[in-house]
Write a structure and sequence with these properties.
Elements: H1 2-18, H2 38-49, H3 61-66, E1 79-92, H4 111-114, E2 119-124, E3 127-128, E4 134-135, E5 140-142, H5 144-147, E6 152-153, E7 157-158, E8 161-163, H6 173-187, E9 190-192, E10 206-209, E11 212-220, H7 252-263, E12 268-274, H8 285-296, E13 301-305, E14 313-317, E15 323-327, E16 332-334, E17 345-357, E18 363-382, E19 385-392, H9 393-402, H10 411-427, E20 434-435
Helix pairs in contact: 9-10
């Protein structure tokens, strides 16, 4: 009886911890390459059930992220200004039921927003390899039909570039990386962060948009414990962002590619970083420090992926006076195996660059407004088939409240929308960013 009572007490205490809104994170690299102990898997599971909403105690991150980050309206006068708009979304996770009929309505509600920018960026988090199909909990190597609906929609457009540097690109080894690059070449979608030969490693894309050149670099913290083959170490850009100590973190590849981008005429450099810790609202303090260093070293905008949920964002003034930004995690645009509401919400980021000339005729590029639009991925069954939709959270909830929303939504869709809108309003609205 005493033993059963103790077990019950421990179980209750465990539940209180798991669902406490005040729990703090444990120090973890969150990488299957280095974490094998059962305690880490238990901790991971606890965050899956209920995310960690607070940063490390004493880190100062709550205060830092709550301050007003509105951009400075001063600085040199810009002549003949015109905007260049970058659109970015979170992780594109594959699903079998998105192929064919299931994915026809995926972009219907947000496609006109996502694909209206001058440069459209996403993270494609799987390998496309018809010769090696893997559909497991932690490995994704899929046929082309799974990828097609995620790359865009004929009604609205396609992504211009996808980041391939992530912890799933090596899921079917070098064959998967090569076939993914080949597939994207055939679809005329550019990619960054993975390559077929060592000669291609530094051939990152540079886009010309309204007279300025934008380079897109990409890196990943891990390949999920599946090492790159000895003859294929160039396959993806591996940088151990999440390392617990600085001696294990080597950003030299990033520094080299920043210099290459500038030498090739890049006016603005975007880095797509696959990093961070799953199911935590705040990035670890060490990641914030490393982000600042990369911005000080020449990156202008960091687009973060991987934690499976949204993280807070940051505007940062570099040591040389540039206005830069870090979107630490945009979340999963589409979800695989993630069941809870907060895991189905992500951000569409609209980053406006103000471009023009100074009084001497020199080109100017300045970071302007950043608009974040929370969206939710819903799945409903209609006529025996699963239908996927991406719904803008704030706009849809406002229209539901006012009675202006005309499309039929299920009771569960309405519940999910209201739940994530409330969570987003409470934890993710920051001064200096616009939300729609």
């Amino acid at each position: 009886m005493i033993v059963l009572s103790l077990i019950l007490i421990l179980f209750v205490l465990l539940l209180l911890y798991v669902y406490s809104p005040f729990k703090r994170p444990f120090l973890t690299e969150s990488d299957w390459t280095y974490h094998k102990a059962p305690w880490w898997q238990l901790y991971y599971s606890s965050k899956y059930l209920s995310p960690v909403k607070k940063p490390f105690r004493g880190s100062g991150l709550e205060e830092a992220f709550s301050k007003d980050m509105s951009p400075d309206q001063g600085g040199a006068v810009m002549l003949n200004p015109q905007p260049v708009v970058i659109k970015a979304v979170g992780d594109l996770m594959c699903r079998k039921d998105l192929a064919g009929e299931g994915g026809k309505e995926l972009w219907s509600h947000i496609g006109s927003d996502v694909f209206c920018g001058d440069l459209r960026i996403a993270n494609m988090e799987f390998a496309v390899n018809p010769k090696c199909i893997i559909e497991e909990l932690l490995r994704f190597s899929v046929p082309e039909s799974y990828a097609e609906p995620l790359l865009g929609d004929s009604r609205f457009g396609m992504f211009d570039v996808v980041s391939l540097a992530n912890n799933h690109i090596n899921d079917s080894l070098s064959g998967g990386i090569i076939s993914t690059c080949d597939f994207l070449d055939r679809r005329e979608v550019a990619y960054s962060g993975a390559c077929r030969t060592s000669d291609e490693q530094d051939l990152f894309p540079i886009f010309e948009c309204r007279g300025i050149k934008i380079a897109v670099l990409s890196y990943t913290f891990s390949t999920n414990g599946i090492p790159l083959e000895s003859s294929f170490k160039h396959g993806t850009n591996l940088v151990r962002f999440n390392a617990l100590v600085d001696d294990d973190y080597d950003p030299s590849m990033i520094y080299r590619q920043i210099k290459l981008a500038r030498s090739r005429g890049a006016d603005f450099i975007v880095a797509c970083n696959h990093w961070g810790v799953e199911f935590e609202y705040y990035p670890p303090h060490r990641l914030v420090n490393r982000a600042h260093n990369l911005l000080d070293s020449g990156i202008d905008l960091i687009i973060g992926h991987h934690p499976h949920i949204i993280n807070l964002s940051e505007r940062y003034r570099t040591k040389d006076g540039r206005d830069t930004a870090v979107l630490y995690s945009l979340g999963n645009l589409t979800s695989w195996g993630l069941k809870f509401a907060i895991q189905k919400m992500s951000h569409i980021a609209e980053v406006t660059l103000d471009t023009g000339f100074d009084s001497s005729g020199r080109k100017m590029v300045r970071l302007g407004n950043i608009r974040l639009t929370p969206v939710i991925h819903t799945m409903v069954r209609q006529n025996g088939k699963v239908v996927h939709k991406l719904l803008p959270v704030i706009k849809t909830v406002e229209n539901l409240k006012s009675g202006k929303y005309k499309e039929k939504l299920t009771w569960n869709e309405k519940r999910l929308l209201r739940k994530v809108e409330k969570e987003h309003r409470k934890y993710f609205r920051q001064k200096g960013f616009e939300y729609t």
